[in-house]
């Protein structure tokens, strides 16, 4: 990591002192500024007073569990979340992702894999980096605006719609190819669009979540799921006509 660059701040929320210390030490050695919490109360206390770039959240915590905390993190703070768990079933991965986690890592994990996941999440969620010239600053469709600078989605009524980082980049990928059939494989191939451990089912899960959020804030026929149309055995089509705004004007 470039010693001249600001150090990214990572919060480790893990009730096992040995695992907490191991993860914190591992990341500190790589140049990250690491804070630690043992439960949800400690986590909220730190989030309310510190500016954080990433939260590593254990699923099984004393008191309020990781799924509930993850949902609150996503709603209130919008910080990227890497969930840790000793449970590795497909259902548990889906629950973790649906609760708002951006990625999911099963214990025991290799230290190099943890560091790789952290780096990948921070790289693709660099929320303060302005787009390069001639890259989209926003996608506008059916009264909605997906702003690529502020990383925000605004409904036709002007409401801010919270998205996970995976949901945001998946929607951006669909907007960029509006009117085309985009296969699951093509979406999985986007290194920044999905969790590192993505699989076909996670694409479907994210599409369902996007449809719900668009329907909840939208109106009319398109809000009933028609914006993202499933093409059997082929992939998905983003139906609305999309206008691309560049930093210097409209494309």
How is the topology of this model organized?
Elements: E1 9-13, H1 17-29, E2 33-37, H2 40-49, E3 54-58, H3 66-76, E4 81-85, H4 90-98, E5 103-106, H5 111-124, E6 136-141, E7 144-147, E8 152-154, H6 165-176, E9 181-182, H7 184-189, H8 200-217, E10 228-231, E11 235-238, E12 243-246, E13 249-250
Parallel strand pairs: 1-2, 1-3, 3-4, 4-5
Antiparallel strand pairs: 6-7, 6-12, 7-8, 9-11, 10-11, 12-13
Helix pairs in contact: 6-8
Summarize this structure briefly.
By secondary structure, this protein is of the alpha/beta class.
The CATH class designation of the largest domain is Alpha Beta
Sequence of strands across the biggest β-sheet:
2-1-3-4-5
CATH superfamily of the largest domain: Response regulator
By secondary-structure content and strand pairing, the structural class works out as: alpha/beta
Give the uncertain stretches in residue-range form: 127-133, 220-224
Provide the gyration radius in Å.
Answer: 19 Å
What CATH calls the topology of the largest domain is: Rossmann fold
| Number of domain modules | 2
